[in-house]
Amino acid sequence: MEMITKMVLERPVVIYSKSSCCMSHTVKTLLCDFGANPAVYELDEVSRGREIEQALLRLGCSPAVPAVFIGGELVGGANEVMSLHLNGSLIPIYA
Q1: Which family does it belong to (predicted)?
Q2: In CATH, what is the architecture of 1-85?
Q3: Rounded to an integer, what distance in angstroms lies between the CA atom of residue 36 and that of residue 40?
Q4: Which end of the chain is more exposed for a tag (fewer CB within 10 A), N or C?
Q5: Distance of alpha carbon 69 from alpha carbon 94, whole angstroms
């Protein structure tokens, strides 16, 4: 968990993803289209990816990816990000 805390404080927007996950791709595309420059950690490609995935599950991310952090705070996964987007609340969060 300490590793995640450190990682999410390094950049304003952080996405934990898997390269094969279509929902991760959708969330990354959405945030980039809004002009965000997120730090993206592909858990199937980084060292300690499995450990990070388990920590995300312990934080309440289910499924573990995609997991979006904005301003060091867990926003949630694809459902939460899309809900924020649809009700117009996503841009003010990271703007």
Answers
A1: Belongs to the glutaredoxin family. CC-type subfamily.
A2: 3-Layer(aba) Sandwich (3.40)
A3: 11
A4: C
A5: 10
